[in-house]
Amino acid sequence: MSISKVTFIAAAILLLVSATLGSNDRSPIPGDPSSLNSWFQANVKPYAKREGTLDPSLETAEAKPRTIKVRKDGNGDFKTLTDAVKSIPLGNTQRVIVDIGAGVYNEKIQIEKQKPFVTFKGSASSTPTLTFAGTARVFGTVYSATLQVDSDYFVASNIIIKNSAPRPSGKLKEEQAVALRIGGDKAAFYNCRLIGFQDTLCDDKGRHFFKNCYIEGTVDFIFGSGRSLYLGTEINVLADQGLAVITAQARYREDDSGFSFVHCKVNGIGKGAFLGRAWTERPRVVFAFTTMSSVVNPAGWSDNLHPERDRMVSFGEYKCKGPGSNPSSRVKFSKQLTPQQANAFISLAYIEGSKWLLPPPN
């Protein structure tokens, strides 16, 4: 066989493989919620079926995972999460699964940037709670988090993460209290509950995936500059006192950050909650196939008293339902998206998931 034919065949194989791998990214999330599980299983396969397609460093880490156990009763490797995280070496190259036993862990936990490939794993039947009462007044907003993750390839499954500081009264400054800050890239959260009031989740930066989670709060309780996909997640709004806003996405310029909520549920108490506000000049937030209760303000969105931002914001909705989704009273600077406009936000391609997203740990 000639060299030219070999080259041609090799190129064709590479093209075919590339197209096959890319299809996982581009497969749209189905509009029918009963198809979500089968869609996820088809597009997010376990490591054993993905070798050769994932980020090389991730494949190295997943090849030989190790588990350390945290038990409050002393029947594990560590009694605290802080000590377990300290045991992970800087420059870690191995998946470390921190198996967390039942109970309440009153700790302020940080996973440093130099400690990638960490998994926090709890049990769905006896979910552990991580809690701390840090506030912006003491630590600064983003550093008030109960769990602060700066490293890449973090995974959490079956965990409750709570900031137990009191609900802001409006009488004191800097009462914001973050439960989770995720600042690393390529992180996934499965069946996690994030509990707080103002600024519950700092979705700070990087690509993130949330599935079957629960997020509760009052004002700006999902905020930051992340590029994140929220799938099948319940958003519980406490809109019974004063201003209530779900998202404060912090996009300052034409970059690729933004929040996409797909097949989520927006519930809560009270009325008048905004889906998002223009906390910065160019926020980007999309709700697709989402059920919205009457807790949502009929106007939907706020320009945060900055009308000059109306032409720059990207606030969109696509095929949502429920009493809070009625488009008739929506502000003019929001959009009801066409299928073509929505497609970019309703697939794993939005977070480039085919290279790093794996199912939750068993």
TrEMBL record:
UniProt-recorded Gene Ontology molecular function terms: pectinesterase activity
InterPro entries cross-referenced by the UniProt entry: Pectin_lyas_fold (IPR012334), Pectin_lyase_fold/virulence (IPR011050), Pectinesterase_Asp_AS (IPR033131), Pectinesterase_cat (IPR000070)
SUPFAM superfamilies in the record: Pectin lyase-like
Keywords: Aspartyl esterase, Cell wall, Hydrolase, Secreted, Signal
Pectinesterase catalytic domain ranges (all copies): 68-353
Gene3D superfamilies, alphabetized: Single-stranded right-handed beta-helix, Pectin lyase-like
Region forming the signal peptide: 1-22
Pathway given in the UniProt record: Glycan metabolism; pectin degradation; 2-dehydro-3-deoxy-D-gluconate from pectin: step 1/5
EC number: 3.1.1.11
UniProt GO BP: cell wall modification; pectin catabolic process
Active-site residues, as the UniProt record annotates them: D220
Catalytic activity: [(1->4)-alpha-D-galacturonosyl methyl ester](n) + n H2O = [(1->4)-alpha-D-galacturonosyl](n) + n methanol + n H(+)
Localization (cell): Secreted, Cell wall
PANTHER family: ACYL-COA THIOESTER HYDROLASE YBHC-RELATED, PECTINESTERASE 63-RELATED
Family stated for the protein in its record: Belongs to the pectinesterase family.
Protein name according to UniProt: Pectinesterase
Source organism of the structure: Dovyalis caffra
